[in-house]
Amino acid sequence: MADRIAPTVLFQFSPDVANGNGDGARTQLEWTRSIFHTIACMTGREQQARDADAKLDAGLARDAARLREAGLSGTRFALLQELGLPDRYWAYTGNSTAAGVARALGVKLWPEKPTREGTVYVTSADFLKRPDVAVLFVTASGADAPVEAKLDSPVWRFVPAKREGRVTLVEPNIWGFGGPMSALRLGDVITEKLLALPRTAP
């Protein structure tokens, strides 16, 4: 049907990590960058794509240096997305765009195991035995709300990250599936939030 309007090209949303069909891409970030360059080539905008790539690489390198200088390289964190469900969230996984950004920043995203869509459902109970994992929580309403207003399960008060003040809200205009500029914004936000959190207890 679409071919009746114009030539149509379909892109697979995510690298097929499980079956090894990701064309060398380990995360959605690398996969998206490849698609971005393919579209640029098809539309005669290769230089603009190279400029966007350079801007992304420079920004991630800048953020990585800030985290390194603060002694936060290797920090482990989870990036959760609010879904409007009681104590049920998306966590971005080891093949997501967020994982690719985290790798470039020199930090570690939990959970590391890749999934088909780059996300997995988690609850507060999944963090009870993860004392080293900080939580960045992408809220659907606004980052100016109290953290407690978003963590509706009584289990959260037993989570080490919550007790130590290492759960923080992220504004809702962060998109975990976008292109280079979305990835750069995500990198900036991860950096700012990790720098502002208390350090992991020894």
Automatic annotation (TrEMBL):
GO CC aspect terms: outer membrane-bounded periplasmic space
InterPro entries: Bact_iron-sidero_bind
Keywords annotated in UniProt: Signal, Transport
Protein's name according to its UniProt entry: Periplasmic binding protein
